[in-house]
Amino acid sequence: MRQWSRIFLLCLFICWGSVAAQAQQIQLDVLTVNDFHGALAPEERRPGAAVLMGAIEQERTNNPQGTLLLAAGDMLQGSVDSNLLYGRPVVEMMNAMQVDAMALGNHEFDWGLRVLQERAKEAHFPFLCGNVVDKQTAMPLEFVKPYVILERQGVKIAVIGAVTQETLYKSHPNAVFGLEIQDPAVRINAWAQEARKHGASIVIALTHLASYMDKDGKITGEAAEAASKLTGVNVLVSAHSHERVAGFVKGIAVLQAEAYGRGLGKVRLNYDSKTRTVQMLSASVTDLVAHPVPPEPRMQELVRRQEEPIIALKEQTVGSSLYPLEHSRNAFSPLGQWVADAMRSSVQADVAFLNGGGVRLGLPAGEISLGQVYAALPFDNTLYTVQLSGKEIRKILEHGLFNPTFGMLQFSGLKVVCDPDMPEGFRIKEVRLASGDELADGKHYLVVANDFMAAGGDGYTMLREGLEGRDTYIFLRDIVLREMKRQQPIDFTGDERLLERKGDSLRLPDAA
After folding, report:
1. Beta-carbon neighbour count of residue 23 at 10 Å?
2. Alpha carbon 366 to chain centroid distance?
3. What's the rounded Cα separation, in Å, for the pair 123 and 92?
4. 419-445: per-residue pLDDT in tens?
5. Following CA atoms 441, 446, 452, 457 in sequence, which dihedral angle do they give, to the nearest 10 degrees?
6. pLDDT at 310
7. What letters, b where the CB count within 10 A reaches 16 and e where it falls short, cover 418-455?
8. Cis peptide before 309 (omega within 30 of 0)
9. Whole-angstrom Cα distance, residue 123 to residue 254?
């Protein structure tokens, strides 16, 4: 009898030890989305909110008690569905998805702090940003938290927000006036240290910092630079560059899930509750374009309800084109040229300038809908006129042409010969007006740009040096719609207003 009791106790001890060992290992899954840009409804290469929700729910089913869902900024702005209501439909979507936290992206500032504060009040999750403060008070924004501590299966997880310092020139300067954007790595380290003191066992940097990954898996960009300087951080969520990234930088998992809901990022890790150590298991991005999942019915109904009042407006035909009007941010594009032409003719200016990022997508051949125009021109930019000297115009060309940081400058009213292989300040070889007259450095010309550029956006501070600057308060999108209606159909494929000089030959610039 004693022998059987000993055997029973031994088995009990072994079983208890096995359960205790399992209890030490807690599996956690961090799901991420970024740069959604209001892409609620499914369109070409945009799966839509219902497919994204379906993928999220599948992942949650696999680990219902150990899953977090984080959004890395630029979620609200970018589609007619969202823009007409200043991002409210996307906040409603994110509430339904049960997002745990969202970092601010540069485009969250586009409608100003008052609107952003309204969206923060409507959200069932915190808006995070730990590296933005008021210049005068040195205090963070009242409605934004630097970090939050979440809990899964008894494990405390700190999520720290940070936005790119490019926000100061990639958001409308008036919207971020008076704000200081501090070094992300420095502030993340400081908040991580504080969060650890408050019991956080895992630290996630939820950032709107750009990253890129080459075919060999090497990660570069602002996010990688920050990761290399961080201490006590386990995961860094990236955004901003719309890339697919999943890997590690100095042991920190770094991932970015493309944009427009095309991907769902996931970091899987184990936390050992006995040793208090974190084991990184994997970092991946699911391609929801190549491998879509069934749309989640409740989200389908939510999007349908949101779209119902404006669907007829979106589908309204507003123009047509004989040829595709293509656009790429880093190319001198047919659509960029055509929009610049419309700007110049609308105010009878000598020259028009448009930043490459002011246009987001091309337009198709055939009929063009209002929804497509909003997708191509998602910003509520207005036209701004100013008298600039020929010398100042040359500065703008030097700054904006072939600049991968800001995107390719689009222009109208000029014929420019350049050498992009030369350093900035020596690229522009010849500039003539549309009339054929040479641009005179000492003469002033009427220039039209958008209000983003006029406020110094993308570094176009030269526009401030002009005379008689004024905002017309005419929306760029309205000018485009009016010009589409007038031309009907558009017959334009681009022209030779920009030529590269290579040796003794002149040629059109290559498309990006």
Report:
1. 12
2. 29
3. 7
4. 888 887 888 999 999 999 999 999 999
5. 0
6. 83
7. beeeeeeeebbeebebeeeeebeeeebbbbbbbbbbbb
8. no
9. 26
Backbone angles phi, psi at 441, to 5 degrees: -60, -40
In sequence order, the β-bridge partners of residue 412 are: 352
Rounded Cα distance between 14 and 10, Å, is: 6
Kindly tell me the burial class for residue 238, based on how many C-beta atoms sit within 10 Å of its own C-beta (0-12, 13-18, 19 or more): buried
Sheet holding 428-433, edge to edge: 428-433, 414-418, 498-502, 505-507
Return the pLDDT at 16: 41
Question: Locate tokens 């901003």: which residue?
Answer: 240
pTM: 0.75
| H runs (alpha helix) in 46-100 | 49-62, 80-83, 88-97
Which amino acid would we find at residue 346?
Answer: S
> Which residues share a beta bridge with 317?
369
Backbone angles phi, psi at 285, to 5 degrees: -130, 125
CB burial of residue 19 (10 Å; 0-12, 13-18, 19+): exposed
Confidence at residue 216, expressed as pLDDT on a 0 to 100 scale? 94
Length of the chain: 512
CB neighbour list of residue 330: distance below 8 Å, 6 or more residues apart: 356, 404, 407, 408, 512
Instruction: Name the 3-class secondary structure at 343.
Output: helix
Report pLDDT for 366. Answer: 96
- Across 251-339, the runs of DSSP E, i.e. the strands, are 252-257, 263-272, 277-287, 317-321
Q: 205 to each of 155, 201, 202, 239, 370, how far by Cα in Å?
A: 17, 13, 10, 12, 38
List of the chain residues with pLDDT < 70: 1-23, 503-506, 510-512
What pLDDT, on a 0 to 100 scale, did the predictor assign at position 10?
45
Tokens encoding 33: 């989305």
Identify the burial level of 28 via C-beta atoms within 10 angstroms of its C-beta, where 0-12 means exposed, 13-18 middle and 19 or more buried. Answer: buried
Cβ-contact 262, 46 below 8 angstroms: yes
Q: What is the pLDDT of residue 23?
A: 55
For the chain, the 3-state helix, strand and coil shares in percent, each to the nearest 5, are 30, 30, 40
What are the backbone angles phi and psi of residue 43, rounded to the nearest 5°?
-140, 180
